[in-house]
Amino acid sequence: MDISSAAQQVGSSFFDFDKLALLSVPVVAITAYFTYSKSTNKSKSKSSSSSEKSKLHDALTDYKPQERPFGFWKPNYTYKTPTPPPYPNWDLKTTLPIPYRAFRHKYVVTMGIRKMEPDSWIELDNDWEYFHALKLKRIEERKEKCWALNALCVTAGWEVLEELCNYLPARYPSMFKFENRVMEILPTGETFDLTDPKLNPIVAAAKLIQDDIVLMVEKEDGHYYLEGGCSTLPGFWRLGEKAGLKLDDIHTTSGVPQYEKQLKTGMNKLFRRIDVDSPVVRNNYFIQTDNHLDWSPAIGDEDEGEIGWKKAKEASDISEVFFRSERQCLKRLPISGVLVFTVRTYFIPITELVKEDYVPRRLLDGLNSWTDDIRQYKGFHTFEKVLLPYLEEKAKEQEARGLDYGKEPKDFPYFQ
Ligand code: HEM
Ligand SMILES: *[C@@H]1O[C@H](CO)[C@@H](O)[C@H](O)[C@H]1NC(C)=O
User: Fold this and answer.
1) Pocket lining: 241 vs ligand 2, CB cutoff 6 Å
2) Which atom of ligand 2 is nearest to the CA of 278?
3) Interior CA angle at 254 toward 371 and 289, to 5°?
4) How far is the CA of 33 from the centre of ligand 2 (A)?
5) Tag placement on the chain: N or C end, fewer CB within 10 Å?
6) This prediction's pTM
7) Pocket of ligand 2, candidates 76, 115, 273: which has the most ligand atoms within 8 Å of its Cβ, to mutate?
8) Which ligand is nearest to the CA of 61?
9) Which residues cross the membrane (predicted)?
10) What b/e string do you get for 73-112 counting C-beta neighbours within 10 Å, with b at 16 or more?
11) Ligand (nearest to CA of 332)
């Protein structure tokens, strides 16, 4: 359907949550009607040639992915997200975070995407309780600063919640139950009634998982815009500043190094190309000089003024230095056609990380290979004096006891 004109019908970009459920019904109804009329009036609509109807015809056509007109998406009702098997031996108290160690001996700016196994979409572990409590506190304190849901992606907000209500109880059966349209988090007893018109779907979705969520909508210019999301643990960026921006501007306004040259073209192509059955995943890392998972105060206030590393003070002790790494997944929702970007942060003290074989040397090499632009972007000066010598010392300790680099894990993101 024509997503942009649906927004015009709604009239404003942000609106009252009480109306959400009501509005989402017409959007779904229009969508269903398009699909229905396609199957019943095929010959009739094909024979019509009036130009004002051409957009409707576009929406009724089964396009090859690369020929799909910008901003159009025909709901794919045949595709059903596969139900995942239970995560092996998953337990809220004992399942450890997956040890992604997503740094190489040499740092390069790259999209670094890999195909994602649909079963592995959302990863939960024994940090869930900590993440969940922090998310609740942040949502309570920050309210609408945590989330956005423009008219363009109200349906997508409900759709992502629905996807999670189907995925999570199958993947983590000891954790969730979805019955009679009510999602329950079993260990906490929290419930989310999907028939409740006051339910904020994107906030509810974010409360279930450890990830933050961003919704990206393709418009008629072919670009992807941030039109919704729930961002409670961003670390270094502000949702309010990015809402409404297109992918390129989201990145250039954050000063992502080499964006124009290394990332822009590939990323825009990738976004267009992602289909319901071809999700992708990527991992990144940052060094942080405080232990705040939610917002790093080192770069400035979360709500006011400029943020950046320039004014950030230098760490004086290794205990202040943390490794922050995100696992980011990108997948297409079948009905709305909106892209869901989930960001799961893994966060550990450097003093823990260095206990793992190969890690100190590889991280040190990686940091030493940062070019000046990367150094500036990632706040190198705030940790170099304490972190670099510390890593060198730990690497030497490992080497002194005979660590064999021939046996270092080869595959990014290097699970230990
Ligand atoms: C879809 C929604 C996305 C949003 C809202 C988003 C947003 C951002 C933001 C705010 C930053 C700056 C973060 C910081 O400095 O703390 C950033 C960095 C970056 N983004 Fe994105 N991004 C998205 C998707 C992607 C994708 C799919 C890719 C690659 C295919 C990508 C590649 C990068 C890279 C390379 C950086 C530099 C830091 C890093 O290595 O992660 N982004 N992004
Ligand atoms: C729905 O998605 C599946 C998987 O990508 C694809 O094979 C099928 O052709 C799609 N159906 C329509 C109507 O686009």
Assistant:
1) no
2) 5
3) 65
4) 18
5) C
6) 0.88
7) 76
8) 2
9) 20-36
10) bbbbeeeebeebeebeebeeeebebeebbbbbeebebeeb
11) 2
Task: Output the CA 397–ligand 1 centroid distance in Å.
Answer: 35
Per the structure, how many domains does the chain have? 1
CB atoms within 10 A of CB 289: 24
Q: 183: domain range?
A: 113-403
Which has the closest alpha carbon to 231: 342, 307, 146, 164? 146
Ligand nearest to the CA of 308: 1
Q: What is the pLDDT of residues 76-119, one digit of tens each?
A: 999 999 999 999 999 999 999 999 999 999 999 999 999 999 99
> Is residue 48 one of the residues assigned to a domain?
no
Q: Could you tell me the sign of the dihedral formed by the alpha carbons of 38, 44, 48, 53, in that order?
A: negative
Mean pLDDT of 237-251: 97
Q: Which of 245, 256, 260, 292 to mutate to test the pocket of ligand 1 (most atoms within 8 A of CB)?
A: 256
Exposure b/e, 387-406, CB count within 10 A at least 16 = b: beebbeebbeebeeeebeee
pLDDT at 57: 57
**Of 216, 222, 268, nearest in space to 244 by CA:** 216
The residue whose CA is least distant from atom 39 of ligand 1 is 284
User: Which H helix or E strand runs over 184?
Assistant: strand 182-185
Q: How far does the chain reach from its first CA to its final CA, in angstroms?
A: 46
- Looking up tokens 């956005």 gives 148
For 8-52, the DSSP string reads: HHH-SSS--GGGHHHHHHHHHHHHHHHHHHHHHSHHHHHH---GG
Domain assignment present for residue 90? The answer is no
On whether residue 1 sits in a domain, the answer given is no
| Nearest bound ligand to the CA of residue 39 | 2
